[in-house]
Each structure stands twice: as C-alpha cells, then as structure tokens.
Amino acid sequence: MIRPSTGYLAFKLVYGWDCLLPIDFSLASWSIVDWEGKVHTHEDLILTRMRQLDEHNLTIVKAAEQLETSRRPNKEWFDTHPRLQTEGQQLKIGDLVLLHQTIGSGNHALSKKLQD
C-alpha cells in the first residue's frame, strides 16, 4: 500500500525496488527485465547498477521531501494550539503527578512485570 505521507511503498524505500508478486512473473511487466542484449560486459552491469542506485537515492530524497510536506500542516496546527501548561498553571506541593522510575527501566524481567 502506498503511504500517503511519503508517496511510496515501504518495501521500495527499504529495498530500493518494487516488490515482485507472483503475477509479475506470469505476465510481461516492467518489473521483469530481459537482460539479453542489454548487458554484455562487467562494465555494462556496473553502469546499470549505478543507475539503479542513483534512482534509489533520488527516490529516497523525493520521499523525504514529500514526508516533510505532509507533516508541515500538522506542525502548523500544533504550533498554533498550545497544549503545554502555561506559567499560571505551575505545579504546587500536593499536586498529583506521574513518576517514571528510570532505574531498572531497561530490565524487562518477567518477575518485575506486574510490580507497581
């Protein structure tokens, strides 16, 4: 599924090419390239791979730009709607707060799973 935020499939961004489905092998499509007549030497193969890597890098840059563009409206909304406490709402002695104990937080032992 193409992600609206990037405009690309996650598989393509990770691996650099589109995912090949079984139907791609049975029907002639652009995903299956006939290498006969196109690559004769190691230099041709290296040049072809360089072009593929360049195209992949351009795809990553374009996806990053699209992701930034899609996140910009959310940033503007959060910038105009402050959700943090203002100075008039300082914490006072006796207020209830949440406490995160960082000591031992990396330990995920089963014996500590249900402790407070």
Structure commentary:
By secondary structure, the protein is mainly α. The chain has a domain of 80 residues. Helix content is 43%, strand content 0%. The chain contains 3 helices and no strands. The longest helix has 39 residues. It starts with 9 loop residues before the first helix and ends in a 36-residue tail after the last helix.
Task: List the main descriptive attributes of the protein structure presented here.
elongated, single chain, mainly alpha, 116 residues
Describe the structure concisely.
The chain is an all-alpha fold.
Global geometry: elongated
- Major beta sheet summary: none
Structure classification: mainly alpha
Number of strands: 0
Low-confidence stretches: none
Helix content: 40-55%
Rounded to the nearest angstrom, the radius of gyration is 26 Å
Q: Summarize the helix and strand pattern as letters.
A: HHH
**Please, what is the average pLDDT?**
77
- Whole-Å distance between the termini? 41 Å
Q: How many individual helices?
A: 3
Give the percentage of residues in beta strands.
under 5%
Topology, pairings included?
Blueprint: H1 10-15, H2 22-26, H3 42-80
